[in-house]
Write a structure and sequence with these properties.
mainly alpha, 10 helices, binds zinc ion
Length: about 230
């Protein structure tokens, strides 16, 4: 398969669906055109563009069995397909589709790292559809995950409380000083938190070999080439 991917022409049905256009919804007849958009998130700006409701309506209007979207979750290791299928199932479940509800609940219950999916569910569904899954997810989180979630106090609005937060993300290497941004995000979500990183980690990139290092015990030396690491930022 080629790594290059292009949108289909906006004059085709597939092209309109890939762009989330209203006229695509009016034109589409083939369920496979919709399934192609469920299997691959086509949004250009995924932060601003909420496509799941659009796709969920098409799934419903064309009579596509939600079980086919549950199968996308089961069959794909690709984060993009899983994230997109999850969001569509969340919307279908919100509309009362029992196949979507059961399938997504089962997916969260069975998987090792499905906190993201559980958060999507918790944001959209009434608590009785997911609060029994919280202890399952909390038990699964291992040391080294960036956040340790625990179930909230009974009756708390969010149902979540964060009891452990680390900046140890080897992908992003956030500085411990980024805590205010983390706190703001948790506050906005109404999630109680410990008020600071419980496991703060200092990252430094080696200016000599480029390796990312975690500084242990104040020893600013690269683990790979032994060059001194920058002490200030
Ligand atoms: Zn180095």
């Amino acid at each position: 398969m080629s790594s290059e991917w292009y949108y289909d022409s906006p004059s085709t049905v597939a092209g309109t669906l890939q762009r989330g256009l209203g006229r695509g919804a009016a034109l589409v007849r083939d369920p496979e055109d919709v399934m192609a958009c469920v299997r691959r998130d086509h949004r250009f700006w995924w932060i601003f563009d909420d496509r799941a409701l659009y796709l969920a309506r098409l799934v419903r209007d064309l009579g596509i069995d939600a079980g086919r979207i549950v199968d996308v979750l089961r069959g794909e290791d690709d984060d993009n397909a899983v994230g997109n299928a999850t969001q569509v199932l969340v919307q279908l479940g919100r509309g009362g589709d029992q196949v979507a509800i059961d399938g997504l609940r089962e997916y969260v219950r069975r998987g090792a790292d499905r906190v993201d999916e559980l958060e999507e569910i918790a944001a959209a569904w009434p608590a009785e559809l997911w609060d029994d899954l919280l202890p399952v997810a909390a038990d699964r989180l291992r040391p080294g995950d960036m956040m340790g979630f625990a179930t909230g106090e009974p009756g708390s609005a969010a149902g979540w409380r964060v009891d452990r937060v680390s900046n140890q993300s080897t992908g992003y290497c956030p500085d411990p000083e980024c805590w205010p941004a983390v706190a703001a995000a948790l506050d906005a979500a109404g999630t109680p938190h410990p008020g600071g990183f419980t496991d703060a980690v200092l990252f430094r990139r080696c200016t000599s070999c480029g390796q990312r290092n975690i500084v242990h015990d104040g020893d600013f030396a690269c683990a790979v080439c032994d060059a001194p690491l920058p002490v200030d930022g």
